[in-house]
Amino acid sequence: MQKTSGIADGKFTPKPSVQNSTLKIQPSPQAVKLSATSPPSAARSVSALIAAAGLPMDKLSAAIISFARFFSLPLKPELMAAMRRQALAPSPSTAASATVTPATENAPDLGTVAKNREALSLAAAAAESKGVGLDPKGLEQFAEAIYPDWQKRQNPDERNRRQHKNSDEQEKENAVPKTGNLSAAGIKEMALETAEKNPLLALLNRLPGKNGQRWLALPFSFSEGGREFKVSLRILLEMNNQISNHAVCMTLDIAESETGRRWLFILNGPNRHGKSAASALTVYLQPELSPKACASLSRELSTLMEIPPERVSVKNRTESFPWESGCTDDVPLAINEAV
Length: 339
Description:
The chain is α+β, with helices and mostly antiparallel strands.
């Protein structure tokens, strides 16, 4: 394509030439398919794929491989290495703040840094799938829309207070957050308004992927009962002959700012092959609940959402992006609604 655009300091501005563009909307030279002699990626272990891509054998490399498969990207060593470099590059916001405060003051812990890097690699994979290159500032903005707990700084006193709570109090706090007067229409308005205020995100959400799917990230926040919640609504759309922008999956990723509690709702619809007429809901929680509490919450959600109990699952969250990193070996389900 001849259209080119640029991101300067995270902002979208037209650029007159491809050479000077930070965001380039054009066919990527890396977007070539694996040779016919290559074994199907789904049939190979993640560790084998990491080794074949020439990446270090660690969790970040595993995330990069999973995200690349999620977006149907070719597992070419140079592309995987480039995505890893983007994830490991110094954060522009961190670099800016380092001139004001000591490096160790209020610094995010190592776990948060690792999760932020996973968010950056997911953002890099999503951008690559759309044929787009982002500068570090733009990539960070995209990652913030994906990861609601971005750059979380926990108060040590707050952590100690939570550690001394008894299990009953903790399980009550880990239940589904109350939404009060929030409605579906209100959530939609907040998500769209926030995304449209970010020119980069608005542009990326409009671009389709090379595999015929379109992945959207819609961040927003709200307060309820004196608590602040940050949310990332992520939607995977695909084009088919019957429906334009057919939603394959929707996720609602919620983080409570002060305590670090997380709720991830993943909603799938009827199977695309017609083998099942029921929707499916999977919920991931952090910190963990007991098996008994998970089962109780699963029954409650089944009644509330009118989904058969066998298609509602409540699990403890062990990874940052369970849907994007864990669905590639399964046939995705689809939601019978246009978005």
